[in-house]
Write a structure and sequence with these properties.
The chain folds into 2 domains: about 140 residues, Orthogonal Bundle (hpI Integrase, Chain A), CATH 1.10.443; about 35 residues, no CATH class. It is α+β, with helices and mostly antiparallel strands. It is built from 10 helices and 6 strands; from the N terminus they run H-H-H-H-E-E-E-H-H-H-H-H-E-H-E-E. Strand 2 and strand 3 form a beta hairpin.
Length: about 220
Amino acid sequence: MAKYYEYLKVPFSKPIYQRVERLAFLPYEEEVIQLISELPKSKAAFCQLLRETGVRAGEAFQLRWVDISNGTVNIVPEKNSKPRQFRLSPKLLTMINLLPRKGERIWNANPHHFCDNFYRQRKAIASKLGNPRINSIHFHTFRHLKASREYHRTKDLVYVQRILGHRSISSTLKYIQLQSFENEEFTCKAGKTQEECMKLIEGGFDFITEIEGVKLFRKRK
């Protein structure tokens, strides 16, 4: 560009561009649950995987049936990141096992078509629920949400780095929003039997305390 202006004998000064940093959109837990529950089973399982593990959409698309064994999934990394292994919830394992096995890959579909269909279905769900915020949930949103939630829960930056598979801690910092989740409302449940407690944990509830033989759990709305 500078040479062209020099050829025209026109004064030229190189413009300076400064990138404006913006916070990633983080939906409420209830909005994520609503979206996943309304999606078709293939995309619901896909989003549930992203939600539980924080893997990239590209890494999820690469997953084969043989990558899941004994309740764990092995992640083949992309973007020069590190391989990871995650234990999946019984809920997610059931969702995945209900998918048709049409090839060696779990999501045996064209990624571009898969994403386009997701955007159309997401728009319809947002309209049905009367919540336009749902339209701001992308596949990468789950990765940001997982990182921020885990850091808020553990305050362990290295732990979050390992979950995301980053080789550099500076990359992890971009995913962590130091916002407070303390003002969010909670749903509280009580469990008396082992079966009740197991169902609450599978549903995403965290154990808080035990009073007079009753175990108390809570989950952010």
